[in-house]
Amino acid sequence: MDFALTEQQELIRKEVATLARSFSADYWLEKDRSGEYPWEFVKAFAAGGWLGVVIPEEYGGSGLGVTEAAILLHEICVAGAGTTGASPIHFYVFPPMPVVKHGSPALKERYLPAIARGDSVMSFGVTEPNAGTDTSRIETRAERLGDRFVVNGRKVWNTNARQATHILLLARTAPRDPAKPFAGLTLFFTPFDRTKITVREIEKMGRRAVDSNEIFIDGLEIPATDIVGEVGRGFYHLLDSLNPERVLTAIEAVGIGRAAIERASQYAKERVVFGRPIGQNQAIAHPLAQAWAKLEAAELITMKAAWLFDHGRPCGAEANTAKLLAADAGFEACDVAVQTHGGYGYAKEFHVERLFREVRLYKIAPVSQQMVLNYLSEHVLGLPKSY
Amino acid sequence: MKILVAIKQVPDTATQVKIGAGGKAIDTAGITWIVSPYDEFAVEEALRVKEKRGQGEVVAVCLGPDRAKEALRSCLAMGCDRAIHLNDPAWTAADTLTTARALAAVIKQEQPQLVLCGRQAIDDDMGAVTAQLSEVLGWPCAAWIMEESVDADGKNVRAARQVEGGLEVFDLPLPAVISAQKGLNEPRYPTLKGIMGAKKKEIKDVKASDLGLGAEPPQLSVVALEALPPRPPGRVIQGDVATAVKELVRALREEAKAI
Ligand SMILES: Cc1cc2nc3c(=O)[nH]c(=O)nc-3n(C[C@H](O)[C@H](O)[C@H](O)COP(=O)(O)OP(=O)(O)OC[C@H]3O[C@@H](n4cnc5c(N)ncnc54)[C@H](O)[C@@H]3O)c2cc1C
C-alpha cells in the first residue's frame, strides 16, 4: 500500500496551490457581492492548461485521471476559493467526461480541443422540476426528424447556463417503460442555442457568482452527430461519470472545510478573551481538532475512490461514501469555523460565512445524502429497495 | 545561447521560523520548500532571453540536499531544458564561498554565455554568492538588475538597476553574471503541460569529486541564531484628547525618539 503522491502529482498540487492562492479571499468576497462570474480565475487556469486535465492528449488535453483532477479541485478549495472557484473548473472535468468515454471520434474532435483550451463553457442539464431525483421520469423530449432531433422541455438547476456555449443534455427519445425505466434516454453534447433556450436564474443561498438556472427549451435542433454514445442509452453513459463527479464534489467539500479550519485556527490563536487566546479553551480547540480529523478521513476515502476509478476498478461504494462523509465533514468544519469566530463568524469580512453557505450545497447536490444512503443500503448491504 | 540559472531551495515565505535544537540552524520540520523568489525572476528572465532569440538552452543548477530536486523540477516545469543537482555530503555545511566555487566549477564545465542568479536567497539573505561566483570565474557581474537585454549577436548584455532617483545602465561583455531584482519580470506559473514535460527532462546528479573538488571546511560558520526579543506591549494613553495628544507627542519625542 502506498499513500504517497507521485512526484508529478506533488508538483501539480504545489503549482495549483500557488496559482489559486494568487486570488485572495477578498477577490471571492467581491465576486459573491457582485455576482460576477469569476472569469479572471477561469482564464488563469485556462492559460495554465489546467482545464484540459482529463481531456486525452490527442485532443489537446493532458490525459490525466480523476486523481489529478481531485488534487486540482482540492487545492483550489484549500486556497479559499470555495464553490465559487471550484464549480467553474469542475465543469471542465465532469460534463466532458461522458464525451471522452462514449463520444464518437468525430464528436471528440469537434468539441474536446476547445474545452481543453477553455474556449467552451459548459452546462449540464439532467435535473427537472417534475422528476427531481428520479431521473427516469424526466419529461424533456427529443423527437427524431431525419438526421436531427428537436428538443422541447424544461430543466432546473442548470449551472453555468448564463455563459454556457455548450450543454450536456439528457432527454427522452422513447417513452418510459416501467420495466426498464432508464432505457430510452439519450445524451447530447451540443451548442447552447440561445434562440431556442431561455434562461431564468435562480436566486440561491450561496455561490452567487456562479449561476444556476431554470432553462426552457423550445424547439432546440440537435444534429444526430451530437449524440454522445448510443441513442436510448444516455443514462447508462452518464452513470460511468457520476462516480468521478462524486469524487470531485467530495474533495471540494474537504478543501472548503480545510480552508475554514485554517482560518478558524488562526483566529483562535489571535483572539484574546478573558485574558487568553480563545483557542486555549478546549471547547474551542477540540471541535476544530475533531473537524480536522473528519476531513482527513473523508479525504482518504475520496482519494481511494479516485485511485480505484483511475485503475479501472469498481468504485461505486467508495465514491458514494466519499461524497457522504466529505459533505458532512466539510459542513461541520465550516460550522465550527463560524462558531470559533463568534459574532465575527457571521460577518462577511471574515470569509467563513461565505464558506459556510457554499459548503451546504454538497449535502444536496449532485446527489443528496439520502440517495447516497439508499445506494449503500441497496447495493452494498443488499437491503431491499425502499422506493 | 546557453544560459545557466543558479537557484536555491528555501523555506516558503509564509514559514514561521523556529530555531533548531543546536541553536545554530532553523528547525526544518514541517517546512514547505520553494524556489527562492528572486531566483524565479532569474529563471523567468533566462526563459525570456531564450524565447526572444528563438533558440538556446536554459540549465538550472542547485546546490542542496535531496529535497532540492523538487525545486529543480519546478524550474523544469517553468520551461528550463535540463537541470544539474549539486548534491554531496561534502557540501552539507557549505558557506557562500564553497557554494560559489562549486557553481564556478560546474559553469566551467557547462560554459554558458550568461549566468543568472537571484539577488539573494530569502532564507539567510547572505546576498554573497553572485559576487563570489563572478570573482572565482573572473567574469563581469551586475547585481540587482531590473532590466536586461542581450544584444543580437550575443556578445554583450545591457543591464540596468535602480539607484536612488533613477536607473543606472551598464554594458557587460559576455560571459557575465547577472543577479535579478524584483521588478525584472513577472515569473510565469508552470502550466500543466510544463509539469508533465518536466518529468521527462534530465536532472543530472553531480558530486564534489565530479568537479575535482573535495570537502573544505566552511570559512564562515554560524555561532548562534537568536530569536528577536518579544515586542514590548503597546501603551494606551488615557485622558481627554488635548492632554492625550500632548502626552503622545512627548512620548514620541522623548521616549521613542521618533519625532
Ligand atoms: C446549486 C445547485 C446546482 C446544481 N447544478 C445542477 C446542474 O448543473 N445540472 C443538473 O442537472 N442538476 C443540478 N443540480 C440539481 C441537483 O442535482 C438536485 O437538486 C439534486 O439531485 C436533488 O434533486 P431535487 O432538488 O429535485 O430534489 P428532490 O428529488 O425533490 O428531493 C427532495 C428531497 O427528498 C429526498 N428524497 C427524494 N426521494 C427520496 C427517497 N426515495 N429516499 C429518501 N429521500 C428521498 C431527497 O434526498 C431530497 O432531500 C444543482 C442543484 C443545486 C442546488
Description:
The complex is a heterodimer of chains A (387) and B (259). With 387 residues, chain A is an alpha+beta fold. Chain A folds into 3 domains: 7-117, Acyl-CoA dehydrogenase/oxidase, N-terminal domain (Butyryl-Coa Dehydrogenase, subunit A, domain 1, Orthogonal Bundle); 122-232, Butyryl-CoA Dehydrogenase, subunit A, domain 2 (Beta Barrel); 236-380, Butyryl-CoA Dehydrogenase, subunit A, domain 3 (Up-down Bundle). Helices cover 48% and strands 15% of the residues of chain A. In chain A, strands 1-4-5-8 form a 4-stranded mixed β-sheet. In chain A, a hairpin with a 2-residue loop joins strand 2 (141-145) and strand 3 (148-159). In chain A, helix 8 (234-270) packs antiparallel against helix 9. Chain A is globular, with a radius of gyration of 21 Å. Chain B has 259 residues and is an alpha/beta fold. Chain B folds into 2 domains: 2-211, Rossmann fold, CATH 3.40.50.620; 232-259, no CATH class. In chain B, 29% of the residues lie in helices and 24% in strands. Chain B has helices at residues 37-53, 68-78, 96-110, 129-137, 192-198, 241-255; strands at 2-7, 9-11, 33-35, 57-63, 82-86, 114-118, 141-145, 147-150, 156-163, 166-173, 176-180, 203-206. In chain B, the strands form 3 sheets. In chain B, strands 7-11-6-1-4-5-12 form a 7-stranded parallel β-sheet, with helices on both faces. In chain B, strands 8-9-10 form a 3-stranded antiparallel β-sheet, with no helix packed on it. A two-stranded antiparallel ribbon of chain B has the order 2-3. In chain B, a hairpin with a 5-residue loop joins strand 8 and strand 9. The longest helix of chain B has 17 residues, at 37-53. In chain B, 37% of the residues are buried. The model of chain B has no long low-confidence stretch (mean pLDDT 95). Chain A binds chain B through residues 7-8, 10-12, 14-15, 18-19, 44, 47-50, 52-53, 62, 64, and chain B through 70, 73-74, 77, 189-196, 198-199. The structure holds flavin-adenine dinucleotide. Flavin-adenine dinucleotide is lined by residues 124-127, 132-133, 157-159, 204, 212, 361, 364-368, 370-371, 374, 387 of chain A.
